[in-house]
Design goal:
Two copies of one chain form a homodimer. By secondary structure, chain A is mainly alpha-helical. Chain A has a domain of about 100 residues: Winged helix-like DNA-binding domain superfamily/Winged helix DNA-binding domain (Arc Repressor Mutant, subunit A, Orthogonal Bundle). In chain A, about 55% of the residues lie in helices and about 5% in strands. Chain A is built from six helices and two strands, in the order H-H-H-E-E-H-H-H. The first copy, chain A, has a two-stranded antiparallel sheet with strand order 1-2. In chain A, a hairpin with a 5-residue loop joins strand 1 and strand 2. In chain A, helix 1 crosses helix 3, helix 2 crosses helix 3 and helix 4 crosses helix 5. In chain A, about 30% of the residues are buried. The model of chain A has no long low-confidence stretch (mean pLDDT about 90). Chains A and B meet through helix 1, helix 5 and helix 6 of A and helix 1, helix 5 and helix 6 of B. Chain A binds a DNA duplex through helix 3.
Chain lengths: ~150, ~150
Amino acid sequence: MIVSTRVEYGVMALLDIAIHSENGISVSTAEISERQNVSQKYLEQILPLLRQAGLIRAQKGLRGGYRLSRPAANVKLSDVINALDADILADMEPVEEGRAGALRCCINECLWMRLNGLLREYAEKVTLAEFLAECKGKTSGAWDMYVI
Amino acid sequence: MIVSTRVEYGVMALLDIAIHSENGISVSTAEISERQNVSQKYLEQILPLLRQAGLIRAQKGLRGGYRLSRPAANVKLSDVINALDADILADMEPVEEGRAGALRCCINECLWMRLNGLLREYAEKVTLAEFLAECKGKTSGAWDMYVI
DNA sequence: CCATTTTCCTACTATGTCAATAGGTATTAT
DNA sequence: ATAATACCTATTGACATAGTAGGAAAATGG
């Protein structure tokens, strides 16, 4: 699969925050780490990137943590991916001047750019809110339940 | 971009072979290397993989080289990708038993598997013949012309 | 003012992949 | 017999990934 754990954890953390930050309280990396069974230290590396991208707001100190900076319906999947992985949604780098034959240029346009467009189109269409709704339907809201 | 040069060169080599192996003659790595400006030695590493996947047939010795083992219309993009890259079209590895929360499982089903399905659907639909036709239309058959 | 909790930053490491390069062997047409 | 070709394996340098580790800065609550 093309997606790194960094992106995977990023999406997961955002959804966890969305779920557990109701009534205005913040969600800490410690909570996310425990609920989702991922390294807290690694989350501490990922979440600042999402903050720099403007997706979440951080609150330092006691009782601090993160909250979404805008509704989940306004956060596109592409926002998350672009914040955490520079390459996935980017087109292929053009071959250096004059060294690409006609065939290679065609393949780039007819194949790779199109494949990438497909991915980008999807990532720019769906939002976190849609995943939330869909997942909610599946689990009936029992988020913290463990599944084998 | 999600595609490695290995896959890129693989597709390019197959199309080059399809174009230049008319009237039954074989296409050597040296020819492909010169026409497409890529390392011959690297091609020599890639083409055996395509042969092992059954996409091309090799002929050793003088005047040897490669030919497609079936018409370009019967070679799907997914065939090429799977032969050269184990991961791109594969689903995410499941998390180890009991350590994935409900949320993570949902994200996997609702997001990553769906994204992957999109990619796979496309790769299993299009064939080399379609790219050939499309590229032919663009260049009017002037394959060896260099483009800036 | 102080102690604790949190984010945040930087460095480090182990492992693996990528994109080649290199050298040599087996096979085959001529 | 020779030259050209595919084929195989090893090696390399650069880079990315998935963390671990340690501590600095800030905010809260008392």
